Amino acid sequence: MYFGKVIGNVWATKKYEALFSMKMMIVQPISAELESLGEPIIAVDTVGAGPGEIVVYITASEAVIPLPVDFAPVDASIVGIVDTINLAH
Amino acid sequence: MILGKVIGTVWSTKKDENLVGSKLLIVRQLSLDFKEKENFVVAVDSVGAGEGEIVLVATGSSARQTNITKNRPVDAVVMAIVDKLDIPVNQ
Question: Fewer CB atoms < 10 Å away: N or C end of chain A?
């Protein structure tokens, strides 16, 4: 699981049939200190996250598990909205 | 998933028999402002994407989770055609 910040969403009318009505968000990976890490990715949203929110997302084939379907070509999905991060320094 | 642009197709007559009938697309990765990056992938098409279209590509074992690519030797699949990106400036 990784931290990310939702920076936008993707409009795609034509997509694989199992993905019908799923929301796809642009997520910038970030560190626990909220600094950007690498390139933005696109992830399916399962928790109702919006732009500006810090989220937890998962990648690889596990990303299908939180979806309402059990068979879909999804390699990243948002599974939680972060309220606070406590770091022991 | 990654954002990309279809820049061509691949013709391949001799290939794994499980790939027969799959349309192979060359997809160049794009940044969020639609600038082309250096890297590209060859991906199987599941939505009927054509040359010049902006698409999303799912990679890894997730790419096998379509009826077209199930149990086939595939690690990248085009699964959406992008209409537009909405990126609010004030966050």
Answer: C
C-alpha to C-alpha distance for A42 and B30, rounded to whole angstroms: 12
Query: B2-81 belongs to which homologous superfamily?
Result: EutN/Ccml (2.40.50.220)
- Quote the mean pLDDT of chain A: 92
Tens digit of pLDDT for each residue in A54-82? 999 999 988 989 989 989 999 999 999 99
Beta carbons of A10 and B56 less than 8 Å apart: yes
Whether chain A has a CB inside 8 Å of the CB on B1: the answer is yes
Residues of A in contact with B3 (CB under 8 A): 42
Which CATH number fits the domain that encloses residue A49? 2.40.50.220
Closest Cβ–Cβ partner in B47, B58, B86 for A14: B47
What is the C-alpha to C-alpha distance for residues B31 and B80, in angstroms, rounded to an integer? 17
Contacts of A72 (CB under 8 A, 6+ apart): A16, A18, A19, A64, B65, B66
pLDDT tens-digit readout, B70-87: 989 999 999 999 999 999
Is the ipTM here above 0.90? no
